[in-house]
């Protein structure tokens, strides 16, 4: 997606160690026009998949996920990284390791929002090692929901996340695919959509 790769080139910063900072438009400050365009693109790509829910993990996946859900005219659910006092119902839970934060979190979704009647599109901001996506897939499996595919804003193609998900039989669509983050520069592969 040209708009996204152009924005990464303009405002993304390589912090070394395989880390790309996109806090000016995705992970801290959100560009709603760009996020709406990404959500619309995911909706176009998965239009024929009979999606009933869009699922993401808090917090940076919420913006593109809500726009994808809006375009698909289905609800969006986000997995929480911490349990709220109001989450007193039965929960679906999974553990997710964050490479960026170097911590393992337990993510959860209320069982009442996801069932075996759902066909789910997962959306996330980054794909690196695939652990967040794997955790979301596990939540969907616990509910008996079918994962139709996963939409990724930015894929670090030099890491093994895509292979992990494809080995699980999940279709991966990335709007920006990064070949490398060497010498402070971002090198791209051709995106999926």
Structural account:
With 193 residues, this protein is α/β, with parallel strands linked by helices. It has five helices and ten strands. The strands form three sheets. Strands 4-3-7-8-9-10 form a six-stranded mixed sheet, with helices on both faces. It starts with a helix and ends with a strand. The mean pLDDT is 94.
Keywords:
alpha/beta; 6-stranded mixed beta sheet; 10 strands; 28% helix
Shape: globular
For the biggest sheet, the summary is: 6 strands, mixed
Number of strands: 10
Cross-sheet strand order for the largest sheet: 4-3-7-8-9-10
Assembly category = single chain
Radius of gyration computed on alpha carbons: 16 Å
Mean pLDDT: 94
DSSP helical segment count: 5
Low-confidence runs of at least 5 consecutive residues: none
The fraction of residues assigned to DSSP E strands is: 35-45%
Helix/strand order: HEEHEHEEEEHEHEE
Element layout with pairings:
Layout: H1 2-11, E1 13-16, E2 19-21, H2 32-45, E3 53-57, H3 62-72, E4 76-79, E5 91-98, E6 103-110, E7 119-127, H4 131-143, E8 146-156, H5 161-167, E9 172-182, E10 185-189
Parallel strand pairs: 3-4, 3-7, 7-8, 8-9
Antiparallel strand pairs: 1-2, 5-6, 9-10
Helix pairs in contact: 2-3
Entry summary:
The chain is of the alpha/beta class and 193 residues long. Helix content is 28%, strand content 35%.
